[in-house]
Design a protein that fits this description.
mainly alpha; 89 residues
Length: 89
């Protein structure tokens, strides 16, 4: 469930104007950028007029989380399991 919370927190912070995050914690920024989830989120919010406290928002985040299941960084090496790119902290 940590992945779900990290993605939800990422979108919540973006909505509040925090542009410092490249990707949710533990998610590969390389894969995140290629998938353009941030753009999908803004289309979703704009088209649906969604409030992050509602079920439709949670369903969107759950859908994104299911697709990101393997796009994670191994904490010991900071290497993405999907694209094999290594990252520095």
């Amino acid at each position: 469930m940590a992945l779900f919370e990290n993605v939800k927190d990422f979108f919540d912070r973006k909505k509040q104007g925090d542009d410092t995050l490249v990707a949710p914690e533990g998610i590969c920024p390389n894969c995140w950028g290629k998938q353009e989830w941030e753009g999908e989120y803004y289309k979703f919010v704009k088209g649906e007029g969604v409030d992050p406290s509602k079920d439709t928002y949670t369903s969107f985040v759950k859908d994104v989380t299911r697709k990101l299941d393997k796009i994670t960084i191994r904490k010991d090496t900071y290497t993405c399991e999907t694209c094999a790119v290594s990252f520095k902290e």
